[in-house]
Design a protein that fits this description.
This protein is an alpha/beta fold. It contains 11 helices and 14 strands. It folds into 2 domains: about 170 residues, NAD(P)-binding Rossmann-like Domain (Rossmann fold); about 150 residues, Dihydrodipicolinate Reductase, domain 2, CATH 3.30.360.10. Helix content is about 35%, strand content about 25%. Strands 3-2-1-4-5-6-14 form a 7-stranded parallel β-sheet, with helices on both faces. Strands 8-9-10-11 form a 4-stranded mixed β-sheet. The longest helix has 21 residues.
């Protein structure tokens, strides 16, 4: 396609590899290059996919319409985002909710200085779930909004564990507390702390000789990720890890309860059940790449979140089609 949006991927883990596949399902997009901090020649990409070292990013400045950043929120995005926004429009899935305001400010300043668009936190949560939290609160003011994640794998939390010294492999499952979910759906509007809504279950393969007590302590006391939650850490062999923990399932619910009239109960809920968290997250990010490209083409710059993006900019259909088929 001559006018296809030319995309680069930075990072080739689970998310980057998933996006490489999902791009082929978008007729207005094409993958131009995968950037990596590793030796590009050793990257096992699909046949025909070009690779380049992240240090060569500037050489691609005039060849790409956007770059999708694929990494972890703990340390990757704060550095990767500022590096790549200098040359490209970017989309990322930064998911550390508490740090989003600060990350937004830094990316907004850098994007404006470069004349590019940075869409941050464009996944399903933050992302799609953020939208329902906004819509439901606006439609049913004075109500109560609850977000439950899981049961499933949190890539961000798993990545945070893997960065601990002595950890070879790790995966973290987020489990909603069933009693809390049931109480919300009954309209009881319970006051729930984060730890009362979810438990965190970790499976870790430790390096030979690693101090497992130290690993457990670092996990359970990690701010923003595990502190304040009911956390279970299970140490297992590498073989058991590979056999039982290879799938990256996830999902969750946003539930908003409110009242209208003389006390009529109204419930709004968005639910996701995902066989592949990376593939779905990548699909969301690709839709927001389309929006970033369109905003940039209009001469806009700076950071955006999903709250700022008109829904029509996400679709490959033109506006007349959207009016006819969807409204």
């Amino acid at each position: 396609m001559g006018n296809a949006i030319k995309i680069g991927i930075c990072g080739y883990g689970n998310l980057g590899a998933a996006i490489e596949t999902e791009i082929t399902k978008n007729p207005d997009m094409e993958l131009a290059v995968v950037f990596t901090r590793r030796d590009p020649s050793g990257l096992k990409v699909k046949a025909g996919t070009k690779t380049a070292h992240t240090g060569e990013a500037a050489d691609w400045k005039s060849k790409l319409d956007a770059v999708i950043l694929c990494g972890g929120s703990a340390t990757d995005f704060p550095a990767m985002g500022l590096d790549f926004i200098k040359y490209f429009n970017t989309v990322d899935s930064f998911d550390n909710h508490d740090k989003i305001p600060g990350y937004y400010e830094s990316m907004d300043a850098a994007a404006k200085a470069a004349g590019n668009i940075s869409i941050i936190s464009a996944g399903w949560d933050p992302g799609l779930f953020s939208l329902l939290r906004l819509y439901s609160g606006a439609i049913l003011p004075g109500g109560h909004t609850y977000t439950f994640w899981g049961y499933g794998v949190s890539q961000g939390h798993s990545d945070a564990i893997r960065r601990i010294e002595g950890v070879e492999k790790a995966i973290q499952y987020t489990a909603p507390v069933a009693a809390a979910v049931d109480s919300v759906r009954r309209g009881e509007n319970p006051e729930l702390s984060a730890g009362q809504k979810h438990a965190r279950i970790c499976y870790v393969t430790a390096a030979p000789g690693a101090d497992t007590d130290k690993i457990i302590n670092e996990i359970k006391t990690m701010p923003y990720y595990f502190a304040g939650y009911d956390v279970t850490v299970n140490f297992i062999s590498s073989d058991e890890f590979d056999e039982k923990h290879g799938r990256l399932t996830h999902g969750g619910n946003v539930i908003h309860t409110g009242r209208t009239g003389d006390g009529n109960s109204q419930v709004m809920e968005l639910s996701l059940k995902l066989d592949s968290n990376p593939e779905f997250t990548g699909s969301v990010m690709l839709a927001y790449v389309r929006a970033a490209h369109r905003l940039s083409a209009k001469g806009e710059s700076g950071a955006r979140t999903v709250l700022d993006i008109p829904p029509a900019l996400l679709s490959c259909m033109d506006y007349s089609e959207l009016l006819k088929k969807l409204v």
